Structure formats: C-alpha cells, structure tokens
Amino acid sequence: MTTYLIRNAQILGGAPQDLLLAEGVIQQIGTDLDATADVEIDARGLLVLPGLVDLHTHLRQPGKEEAETVLTGTQAAAMGGFTAVHAMANTTPTADTAEVVEQVHRLALEAGYCDVHPVGAVTVGLEGKEAADWDGMHRSAAAVRVFSDDGKCVDDAVMMRAALEYAKSIDGVVAQHAQEPRLTEGAQMNEGTVSAELGMPGWPAVAEEAVIARDVALAAATGGRLHVCHLSTKGSVEIVRWAKSRGLDVTAEVTPHHLLLTDELVRTGEAVYKVNPPLRTEEDVLALRAALADGTIDAVGTDHAPHPEADKTCAWAVAAMGMVGLETALSVVQQTMVDTGLMNWQGVADRMSHRPARIGRLTGQGRPISVGEPANLVLFDPAYRGTVTPDAFATRSRNTPFKGLDLPGKVHATFLRGTATVLAGALTELGEDA
C-alpha cells in the first residue's frame, strides 16, 4: 500500500504540520517529521479536514443509471472530499429489501472511491402503506441503520411511530422528508411573494413545519431518534431548537443550496432551480445559516440529486426536482459560513464529518485527526477561487444551480483509509495504490 508524507498542512486551519499516512492510518503528526514515504506532498497553504460524511445522497443505481451510478456518484463524492455517503432508497426497485441494499453495498465495494451506507425505505415502494423489511435490511451485509422514504413523506403517524420504535431497538434513526402531501399538491415553488407574482402554485412553509412538529412529538413519545432531512424554513429551525432544548434525540440537516440560493431565482424560469423542498426566502436562508453556526442544525446534507439533461432542460412545470451537490458542497459552505465569519474550520469539520458520522452511527468515519486514527482525510485549498464548470464534474449529471458562479476552495486530495482517491485535484486510478 502506498505511503504518503504530507508536509506543512494546516490541520483544521492550525499551524503547519506534517502527517505520515501508512497502512490505512495516520502514523505520525509533527513538525519537520524525520520520515520517508512513497509519495511526498507539499501541502503548504492547504487545510487538512477529516473525510466528509454525507447523510443524504442519491446514487440512482439500480434503475436510473442514465442519471448516476454508484461508481460515478462515489467518484463525485471523492472529488468533493467525501469519504462516506448514505445512499437514499428511491431507486428502481426501491431499496426496501435486503437484496437491494446489499446490491448497492456490493457495487460500492467494487467502486472503492467512497464508503456507501444504503438507507432503507420505511415503506414498501415508498408508498406509505406497508412497512418495509426493516429487520432484514438491518441484518443484511449492508447493516442498515438509517431508514427514510426521502422523496416522499411518511405522513401516516402510525407508520412513523412504528418506524421510530424499531429504529430505537437497533440504535438506528428515521430520516424524515417533512412534506405534508395535502398542503403541497401541485406545488411548484415556495409559497410567497414571488409565487404570487409568477402565478405559480406555492409550497407553504407550514407543510414542512407541521410534519416536523408532529414527528418531534412522536420522537418524544417513543424515545426514538428522529433526523430531519433538508430543513428549509425559519419556522422549522425554531421547532428543532425547541426539541433540542427539551433534550429530545432530534437532529437536522441543511443543504448547501438552501444556505445560498433564494426563491428569487425562480423568476429566471430555469428549471435547474426546481428542488424539493423549494428554495425559500432570504429570511429563511439567514436563519438556516445562523442555526448551522450555533449547532441547532447538526449537519450539511447535500441531497445530491442527479437527473438526465432532458429532465431539467424543459418546461418548469414538468421538470424533475433536484440538484447535484457533492462536488460543490464544501465550497458553498466556505462561502456562506466560513468567509462570512459564522463558522471556523473546526465547525465545518463538526457539521460535515463528526456529527453526520455520529448520526449515522459510523465507527470509522468522522474521527479526530490524530495518530492511530483511520486516514480518512481531505486536503483543501481555501485560497482557490474558480468558476463552477459542470462539464468538469465526475457525476454523470450536470444539473447544478451553481453553474457559472465563482466559488472559493478546491479539494486537492482525498484519502480513504490511506488510499488516495483524489490527488492534485484529479481522480486516481484505484488499484495502483493498493
């Protein structure tokens, strides 16, 4: 296995130090290390962060390989600095059985660019009617501990209660897509001034907030662990903050696009801005940033949602909802949180690695950057600034809302248990490094 000596890197933005990576772990950390390695990297000016962990990724395979595969999705993850992702269940067939989650798990092992933890569906086919085989998925080789019908809401309170109770029994978590379906029938964008002016059916904030409030009450009643997917409104923040103040086991994530973009962009008519939940107001954006900074929101989840070009370059009303986000997430967080002074790099490591790993109950990810720990690391250049160019993405899809924007920061290298998946800003050929 190739060994690496990283010189003069700033761990979490601290003073420059050297790191020796060998046999899958961090062997040494110090100044002017007297050590040799197969590859020496001059990391002057680069940050070292723990490998990023995403609780919310859509890899599309099986069934929608024209948009993404486990291979291309994990390559995109590596390019974004991620060493572990959770793959949502809305594949075709749905990941609601041991067989499907094991297929995704196996494909990820074959790809090798990133750890993939399949998320099991709460209900069969995401239809909300019949409980999926939770125990079979948990006992499978994929060892599922996160369950979600993401893309659809578990709106049946009896089903949600049962899922929370089962998750409690295995120290798992239910990740809820908070969307009251009757309040969002036909909705195309955030309900507000812009939707009224455009004459578009609106998606009210209360459709998200009502579900979160109900689920917080169910979590309190069951003692189960609730995770709120892609929280997007100021009111949702207040509900989660209240739940945490009562000591309830409730966590939440926010997407990079909800930290930066607002519903004003819908005026362009470009369906690349159509997403679920919708882009909200500037007031919501600022509330989300503040909540991520103070820890009310625990994690940044990309909700990486690749789509074929035809599904996004069409009329808004028929366009698919979703945006790709793995390769731009860290840059957006730098711009919205670090460069604004709301968060330091230790905070970024906490919200993009430590806490998501803890929520997903991952043992080898989200670890401290210390001697003896797994060498899951990112070398990141915060001084870089460049234009987002979708054609350069590793993901199979190009539906990014950040096309043409200048964003800061660039991943220089990603290491998965000491194996370089990205070096000098480019994907490596795995197999040569083993």
Characterise this structure.
With 434 residues, the protein is of the alpha/beta class. Helices cover 28% and strands 22% of the residues. The protein has 11 helices and 19 strands. The chain has helices at residues 70-79, 98-111, 134-139, 157-169, 193-198, 206-222, 234-245, 256-260, 282-294, 329-338, 345-359, and strands at residues 4-11, 16-22, 25-30, 39-42, 47-50, 52-57, 82-87, 115-118, 146-147, 173-176, 189-190, 202-203, 226-228, 250-254, 299-300, 377-387, 406-416, 419-423, 426-427. Strands 1, 2, 3, 4, 5, 16, 17, 18 and 19 form a 9-stranded mixed sheet that branches. It has a 5-stranded parallel sheet with strand order 9-10-13-14-15. A 3-stranded parallel sheet has the order 6-7-8. Strand 9, helix 4 and strand 10 (173-176) form a beta-alpha-beta unit. Helix 1 (70-79) crosses helix 2 and helix 6 runs parallel beside helix 7.
Short description:
The protein has helices at 70-79, 98-111, 134-139, 157-169, 193-198, 206-222, 234-245, 256-260, 282-294, 329-338, 345-359, and strands spanning 4-11, 16-22, 25-30, 39-42, 47-50, 52-57, 82-87, 115-118, 146-147, 173-176, 189-190, 202-203, 226-228, 250-254, 299-300, 377-387, 406-416, 419-423, 426-427.
